[in-house]
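User: Predict the structure for this protein chain, please.
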Amino acid sequence: MAYKAVILDIDGTILPHGKTISIATKDAIERLKEHNMKVLIATGRAPYFSDVVIKDIGVESMVFFNGAYAQHEGKEIHKNTIDKQILNNVHMLAQDYQHPLTFLSGSHFKATNLEHPFVKEAYLHDAWKPDLAPSQYWMEQDIYQLFLHCDTEEELPYQSKIPELDFRRWTSADAKTCDVNLSNSNKAVGLTKLLEKLGIAPDETVAFGDGLNDMEMLTMAGMGVAMGSARDEVKQAANMVTLTAEEDGVRHGLKQLGLI
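Assistant: Here is the predicted structure, written as structure tokens:
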């Protein structure tokens, strides 16, 4: 198969958790471009959490919010916001259980409780911090994604009572925060829209990822590559497994595939 595009997740894939992108990974991305290979980013991050990384590697095609929003050359290609009634249901349930929420719009993010330890932990290692969400904030904004801050077992009532949404833990099962996205929206959905714009078929792509939110993307791609640090179910969804981000797994995988 002659591949035409490489799709890269950010955290745990090109960016080791809590670190910066290595020179080796940057070099691998530059070599892909020199070979006229399209490089796409597909991340769970919001655009404003991704700017520094995207500028650093010079990519023009991106999927954000786990597939709910896509851009190409600065233009919006796809958007899928969460319905206000669904947001109201989550908000009411979170109030009942006293769980904080972070609401992510297209331009900023706000949390319902800045002092809760799970909220503080979620942003502990990041340069960005949320503001306090005003009353009804989520009704006045287009919301693409939420973070639910609670223990894993406390997530179950949300899953059963709000089937329109998916809840996926950050990094590991014991993480205190999970991504909340529409169940009909994932990275593969956003990427499909972006690839249509680029005139590239899914089976002409290679995708690298490490998280549960990468599984549909890895399955969709012609060659899905799981990072060495990925959980077993992510590795099972992939066609091959490479090294960890700390070990420059993207470069290693691209070399294994003969793409650089």
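The chain has a mean pLDDT of 95.
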